[in-house]
Amino acid sequence: MLPTQGTLVLKRPLDKDAKDVVEVTVTALDHGIPSLQTTARVEISIADRNDHVPTFEEKLYTLKVAENSPVGHVVGNVRANDEDKGKNGNVEYRLRTPIKKFLIDAGTGRL
Asked: Model-level pTM greater than 0.70?
């Protein structure tokens, strides 16, 4: 007897942000008389696609720092969020225009 296979085909796009696991039950049956059948549960994990843009919590951050502040003085923080899950949702901060007198912590947004 030759083995046969059933192929699951996607009918609609999936969104991991809405549901990250889909479960279906599949039935296999023969053409005997009487027809016999069996079922199996299939669990499908949805891999996240990087489909959300990080957004800053504020459109404009106004920070002040006193002149002659010591090196290492924290000027302020910026914060952004990304609605993606897992590593796609991790945000990294960089100064778009590097300024020699300022650094930003890539992980926290501390300036």
From this structure: no
Which residues have CB under 8 Å from 98's CB, separation 6+? none
Residues 6+ apart with CB under 8 A from 45: 20, 21
Alpha helix (H) residue ranges in the chain:
none
By the 8 A CB rule, do 57 and 32 touch? no
Under DSSP, is residue 81 helix (H, G, I), strand (E, B) or coil? Answer: strand
**E strand intervals along the chain:** 21-29, 37-45, 55-56, 80-81
Q: What is the pLDDT of residues 94-108, one digit of tens each?
A: 998 878 889 999 999
